[in-house]
Structure formats: C-alpha cells, structure tokens
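Q: What structure does this chain adopt?
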Amino acid sequence: MTAKNTANIGEHQTVPLLQLNHYAKNPRRGDVQAIKGSIVANGIFRPVIVNKGTYTDKPNEIVAGNHTVKAIRELAEEHPDDPRWQEVEVWMVDVDAERAARIVLADNRTADLGSYDNEELLGLLNMMDGDLDGTGYDADDLEELTQLDGSGADLASDEEDYSLDEVAEAAALTLAERFLVVPTTVIDTRRGEWRERKQSWLKLGVAAQEGRAGQLIYAPPSGNFINWYEIKNKALALNSELTNKEILEKYEDQLKPYNEGRGTSVFDPALCEILYLWFSNPGDRTLDPWAGGSVRGIVGAVLNRHYQGHELRAEQCVENRKQADRIKERGHLPHGVDKPVWIDGDSAKTMQDNQAESFDFIIGCPPYYDLEQYSDDEADISNLSTEDFNAAMAVTLQEVDRCLRPNRFAAFVVGSARDKRGDLRDMKACMMNAMPDGWHLANDAVLVNNVGTGAIRAKKMFEGGRSLARVHQDILVFVKGDRKTAAKRLDAIKVAELDSMDNEN
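A:
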C-alpha cells in the first residue's frame, strides 16, 4: 500500500443533517450523551468526516464522527426550530470502501492507543472550578483522579495495586466495548447507549410485553401507560396498519407505565445481557426460579446459555415458548444451543426434579412482595404476608442452593415496596436474610431507571409521609463458595453483534 492520493484529501462542506448516513459497521460505542453535553457547552469544534460515496454507492456516509451526528440528531429532535442543528459542517472525502474502512479503524484505534498524564489531566479539570459541564467528566471522575494523583495505586482496586501507567492504559481502553457498560456499582439505564442496546434486543425479536399485559387486573394499554395515546398516534402516523400489540413491542422503551399496579414489569434485556456476560460463560446451564416473561430465557439462549426457568403461571410459559420458537425460526440461536425451557408450577417444588449441583449460574427477579400480584394462586408468594413471604423465599433459595454448583455466581434484581401503611418492605434485606449457608454477597449495585412517573408521584408521596419516589432497583450478586475461584473460571467477555444478527434476517 502506498500513500498515493491520500495527502490532504477532501474539502470542507456544509451538509443538511437529514442527508447524512451513519456507517453501518462502526465498531465504536460512544457516549452520545457526553458528546451532546459538550456540543451544548462548547459548540461543534471539529468537522465530521463524510465519504461522498462515488465509489461505494453509499452517499454521504459518516466515517468519523458518527456519535457526534447522533448527538446533533437528538438536539434537532429536541429543538426542531433551531437552525444550528439542521446542517452539519463536514470534511468531505471521496474514497473507496477499503479506504473508508481504514479511516474508520484508524479514527477509533488512534484514540484508544493514547494514554493520559494523570497529573496534567487533573490540573486541567481543576481549572474548571467545579463546573465540569461539557467536559465529559463528572465529580466522581475528579475524585478518582485526586485519589490516584501521586499515589501510584488505584484506591478502588480489589486487593491489587496498579501503577499510574497501568491505570492510564486501562483508562484509554473503551470500557463499554469490553464490558458493554462500565462495571461500576451504579448502572444508568437512562444513557443513550443503554437505550440503543435495549432497542437492538427488541429489534431482534425479544417481545418483553408478551404474556405480561393483563396478568394483573386487566386494563387496556391506555390504563397501563400514561402516554399511550401520544405514542400510538406517533406510531400510526408512520404506519397506520400497526396493531396495539405491535405498537407495544416496537415502542416499549418509550411507553411510560403507571406504577400503581396497573401493569406488570418486564425485565430489561440489556440488563439481562450484562448479568450473563459478567457472571457466566457461554455453554453454562442457567436456572431461573421466578421466570416471569420470556426475556431472561431468550437473551440467555441467544448468548449461548442453556436456560431453565420456573414459572407459576402456565399461560405465561405458553407465551414464552411461542416466542422462543420464533427466535429459533429466525436463526438467532447459536448452533447446538437448545431453546430455553420453561417449567410451570411452584419453583420450590418443580426445581426438586433437577439433579444436585447441575447448574452454573442463577439469574432471577423475585416478586417485590405484593407490589405486583400475578395470580390468586395460594402458591404465588406475591399474595403472602411479609413474614410468610420471607419464609417462602428462604425455602426456594435452599432448593436453588442444592441445584447450583460450588464456586458459581447468582444474580438477582430486586426492588422494595411499601405496604398499605406506607412502611418500606425491604426486599434487599429479605434476600440477604434468606441466603443459604456458604453463600456470600460478592457485589451490590444500583440500577437507575428513568424517572418517568416518579416526578408526578414524588410531590404527593413526599408531602403525605415524607416518602421518596423510588426510581431505582438493586442488583445483588452472590457467590456460592469462593469468589476468586468463581471469577477465574469465567472466559473473556465477548459482546454479541446484535445489529448484524438482525440485518441477516
């Protein structure tokens, strides 16, 4: 390869936003919200690189600056009358597909290969006098750098010391590319990257709502979602033939549910993916004591996990199996991976049919006391008093313990609820107290959800009893046996290319 015709290629142009097309195979997963904050605070200080497309038949394809344009698109949607977001300053090149790919790779990789002088970085941040808007950094980053400065050790590390060079090198890596999201104790579902990943799962065919709506006292979508008519009108304007069910599936992430028993919750597929990737291996047998909808089973199967879920409601299992059939028909299951299995009945009893120590990973989302009542079955623990609920939880987890191999992880997503008096029923404490002997709490994290109706409920709840509107869930990760031994058996994390899977079918 030579450098012929590559020096100073291209020219400056202004292109309407709607005429720009994203690079379909871009491997980078950028922080759109951080870029958006920078644009608002600082303006757009460098042009986007665009390939004209003469030699690729892909006009105005972005080869550098894809996430910048995504941020501009969000600003344009938020401010449709602002002319600043209707056109984009670009550097227009006209190269073939190979050269375009090289530019994409080089733009991403050259940034990765750099490192930071932590002392100089800290000095720049301190110049901001605490106002970090538009820098891409926040107060936590500043605190961490302050701890690192001059110490040569990462104070947040787990029993290991790292040099400043090692920390800088690690910081240069794109954590989201390696682990899907940054592995910290706060996981924010409001970020653009999270929403994009969730949408990728939904496009793949994970219909989170199927079998869930109507399992409480039935209410039409208008009774389940605050903004139903707004989303429905938007959807029908684009496609007048959509059914309510199709709207529920396609716009699930935009619908804002009432949080007063008018609809059942669904498990976030992006969260499900993270738990599988972080705490299990491909090929692992996974046990779910409270299966509910199809999400954990479908995501597990697509990620090459052998899933067995136990669910009290037979009708829910039927719906889940139908969806698994569709996923398999579309070719989304890896070769040799069985469809997920759902077994109907009381899990404390149905799990007894499993051989001892035959599973490698536990994933589950137990009922949040009686916040959601799924049936009138006496075996349904969502109908029990606090004391009976806690006792039933302990019985179920003893059976889970029997099924799980030693030195393995178990991940649960839980949320507390208030009783009729407004007293908080602590689901986190319930799980901790119910843990079998030999289990240890390896991690706890907070899953931050969209505020949604929390803002509406907050005033009434706070003034009525000084109760805070709940906008988060807790993630509890336990280990049966030794944590380090359990961690050593796990393979390097490999993030699935969901978009390519969807495009293939």
